[in-house]
Amino acid sequence: MRKGLSTTDLRRELATRTTSHVLFMDSNDNGAKLGLQLGLSVEPGLKAVAGPDGRILDGYIVADQAEAKRIRDVATSNKVYCEQYGIPEVHGLAKRLLRGDAIADLNDRQKRIVGRVVTSFLDIATTGMGRATHYNTKEDQLRAERLAHATLFGMDRQTYSLLVCLSGLTDNARKIASWMLLEWPGVGEPSDHELQMEREVIRALATSITTPRMFQLFAMLRESGCNNSRTRRVILCSLLGSDKLPWWSVKYRRKLKLALQHAWGKRMASVIGSICRKRAWTQKERSILEEHVWAYVEDQKDDVQECIAFVLGATKGRWTTPLLRAFVAARDDLAAGRNLPPEVLEGIRSKYHPTKTHDDVLRLTAKTGAFTDGQKIKHQRRVEKAGTTVDFDPTHYDAVKLYIYAYERGMDARITAALDEKAAQAATSFPVSCEGAVVLVDASGSMLGDEKTQKLRPMAAALAISDMLVAGGAKRIIVGGNDRGRRLVRPAGDTSLALPLVQAVRDHGPSSVFVISDGYDNTPAGRFAEVVRALRKVGVSTPIYHLNPVAAAETASVRRLAPDLVPTLAVQDARALATIMLREALEHDPLAGLKVLLQRGRTAARAAISGKQPLAAATRERALGAGKNGKKVEKVLKDLTSTMKSALVDLYTRAPREGANVRYRGIAAPNTVTALQRRGLVQMSGNDYILHTDLGRQAAEQLRR
Amino acid sequence: MLTIREILRGCEVGRIQTVGAMQIIPLTMEQSMQDDRFATPDIVRVGTSTYGTMNFTNPADKPVLLPSHVGYIVKQAAQDHAMSTAGIVPAKRQQSWENAMCIQANQAGMISRGEHKMLILPLALRKPALENRKARNYSKLWNSIGSYNTSSGLGDSRNLVTYIQGYERQLDQFIAEFETVENQVGAIILINGDVVGCERAPSTEYWRSVWEPLVRVCYGSAAIAASRQAQKTETVLKTRVPLKVQDLSNLDDLCSALEHVEAEQEELARRQVRQLLDDQFQEDQEQRAGHARADIVTIRNDQFFGQVATDQTSGQVLYASMVVSDGWDERKGWKLSKRFDI
After folding, report:
1. What is the ipTM of this complex?
2. Most buried pick, A53, A427, A526, B120, via CB within 10 A?
C-alpha cells in the first residue's frame, strides 16, 4: 500500500489507471470533499468510491484500528491512500443472496475476488490462533488475522456476521469478530430484524469464547475506545449475568475492574462501587442499581453487589459470598482458601504464608474442583510432583488438546477411547464419504510447530483430523517422522510427499486422497505439484485435497502444496472440516458457494442463539438492546398521534441526559405532555418539568430510527 | 593438513532438500560420536563497551563457542555489532573481543548487556569480515555493507538492518522451508547447484541453535541474490531435475520415473561435493582455549575460507564454518578441469 499521496498525485494516478483503488476514511468530511473535487461520488465511512461514470471502483481494506486511525489522520490533511487489493464493496450481498436475487452488478473478476476474500477469511478464521507458528512471529500472525477479518467485514458486514457463526472457527476468530462488530458502526439502514439478529450474534459470539478470550475482547474494546451502548450491554451482561462472577472476582479482579470501569465510566463505577458497599440505599441509589446492575442480573443479587464492591476496591467487610469470604480468610489460614483458584491461593501464600510452599497450595486445591479443565490437563506433572493427583475427564477436551497432553504424558486407554469417540462424532457431520479414501499425514520436522507457543500443535491437529477421516472409512499413511507404527508419531526430518502420494494411488486405488501437511515440500520443492500433474497425465483423476492445519502470515492464508492443482483447505479442528469442505464450492462458483455458507451460517447463528441459557425476560431484552419494555414500546407507539410522537422525540432530544429535568414549556403543549405521562412515556416533575422514563426513552429511540 | 574430508570425518550424508535456488545436504552424526563440551551460543549475554568491542558473559557451566561472524541487531538505540571471527568464552566468565565490527553506521550507542537474537553475516560480507579480522577499527565493514546494499537494490546505506528489513519476508521463508533432521550436526549448502558453504557443529543441540541464523541471513541472502540474478538474466536455476512425464503411461512408470529423478537429483549435488573433498587448507591459528581444550583456526584454500575449532589433543574438528571465496566461479572451470595425463 502506498501512503501519503497528495491531491495532484492522486489525479495523476487516476488519469493513468483503467481502474482505481481508492479509500476514503471518512470520520470527517475531508475525504469526501476531496473525492468530490476529483469528480468522484463518495459515500461516508469505510466505503468504496464510484467513478465519474457511476461504476463502483474497487474498494479498500483497513488492516486494523491503528491503521484506520492513521488513515483518518491523513485524510484530514487532504492526502489519500491508494491501495492495490481491489476488493469490491458490496453491502447487502448476504441479504440479496439469501433472498435469491441475481447479483448483476458484479463482474466475473469481482466475483472471483469475493470468493478469494471469503476463502482467505475462512482459512485464517479456522486456523489462526493469534500465536507464533514455526514460521512467523506472533505480530505477523495477528496482523494477517486482522487483515482477513477486516477485508471481509469491509466487503459486506452481514456476510461477515453470518460467516463468523459457522462451526470450526477458532476462539481467537470469534473474539476478533465480536470486537469488529461492536467497534464499527453499521452502515446504511439495516432493518429492525437485521439489527436484532446482529445483536444476538454478537452476544452469542461474546459468550461462546473462553473466559481469558472474553477478557481479551473487553481489553481490546477498551484500548480502541469502543464504548457504544451495545458494547456496554455485552460487557455488563456477560459479567454481571454470569454465575461465575464470584469466581472471576477473585481470579480476574483487575481485569474485571477495568471492564466494569469501561462499561460504566470511571465516575459511575466509583459511585456504584460505593453503593454496593452499603446495606441500605436511598431511592436514588436504588435507582442507580436498578439501572446499571440489576437490569443484567437474574438472581443472586447480593452476591453480585458484593462482587462489585470487592472488585471495585472494597478491602474491608464481612462478606457473605463464599469465595470472597474464603479469599479474606485464607490470609490467616491458607486451608480456608482451598476452593479458590490455585493461582489466587498461590498469590495469598506468597504474601501471607511465605513458609508454606507452592506444593502446599496444589495439595489443597487439587481435590476441591478449583482447577479449571484447562489447568487439570496442563498441570498434571506438577501436581504429581506435589504428591497429589487431579483427575480429569478426557471427554471434556477437544482432540487436539488430548493429543498434546498425550505427547507430554503418554497415551492411555481413557485418552484413546475419548479420541476415538470424538473422531466418530466428527465423522458423522462430514459432508462427503471417506470410504476407500487414503489420508497421508505429514510428520516432518516443521509439524512440531513453534517451540515456545504451539509445540506439537500442528502434529496433534493432523492426527485428530486424520482420526476423523479414518473413522469415516479412510486409510491412514504416516509420511516421515519417528515411531510411525505408534499412534503418537514424533515429527522429524524433511518433507517428502510426492512418492508416497504416487504409491498410495498405485497400491490402494483410493476414491480420494487427503494430504494433511503444513504445506511445503522440500525434497525438492514443487515435486508434489509435478507429481499431481503427472498423475493427471496418466489418467488418474482421483480427487486430492490438501488439508493444512497451520495459518501462515506471509500468505495471509495457508501454504499450498500445489496451487491451482490441488485445493488447499485450512483446518485445525476436525469439527471445522465440514465448513471447510464447503469452502471448496467457492472456487468454482463464488456466489453460489457463498450462498451455501451463508445459509449454514444463518442456521448456526440461530442454533447458537437459541442454545444459550435463557435469561430472565427483562435481562434478555436489556441485553439485546430491546430494553425492558420492548413489546410494550411497540404497543404504546401504535397508540400515539403524530403530534404526540413529534413531542416525544423533541422532549428526549432537548435533554438527552438521564435524570435531568426537562422544561417542557415551549417544546410540547401541556395536554400532549399529560397524554404522554398517562402512557408512562414521561414523568411529571413539578409544574413545568418532566423526567425521562425508560419506556419513553426506548420509544423515542425507535421513533428516531 | 586439513581437507574437507577430514573436517567432516564422522559425518553421514542425509537426503538433500531443495527449495528455489538453495539446496541443503544435511550432515548427521550418531549421538555417541558427538561432542558436548560446548554450551549453545544463544545463552550468552552480549553487549558492547566501546565501538568495536563486544563483551560476552557466559552463564553456563561449559564454555561457549561463538560461531564465526555472529552478529546482533538489537531493538535498543545502540549500534549493532558483529564478530570478525569465531571465539570461545570460558564457563561462567566474561570475554571481550576488541576487533569486532559495527554493522550499523548511522546509529550511535552501546548495546546493553542482555540476551539478543543472533544472526550470521550475509555470505558476501564474510570474506571482508575475515580478511580484516586483525584490524581494530569498528567501521571496517561499512564500505562492504554499503556496496552490498547497493548491489541488493537497497541504496548505499551502510546499515545491515536496511538489508534485513528490505528482504525480511524472503529471509523468514528460508527458516520454514528447510527442516533439520535427526542427529543433524551440519550441512553442505549449494546455491544454484554450486557448493557455497560447509558447516559443522559439535553436537545436534549446537547445530539447532545456529541453524536459523545461518540459513536465514548468511545463506538466505545468497539464495536471494542468485534468484534475482536468474530472473534478470532469465536463466533457469540449476537446482532441480524436472520429472520427465512424456513417456509415462501408467503408475508404475511414474513411480520409477520419480525414483530415478530423485536419485539423479541427489547425485547432481553429491558430484559437486566430491570434487572438493581433498583440497587442502592453509591454517592460521587464532585462539587457544585451554579451558575448552580447543583451538580456533582460520583456514583457506582456492575455493573456501573460514574457521574451524579443533581439539587440542587429537586435532579432531569440532566446529567448521567455511564459505566459498570470491571469484571462485571464474577460477573453477580451470581448477576443476581434468589433469593432463597420457
Report:
1. 0.86
2. B120
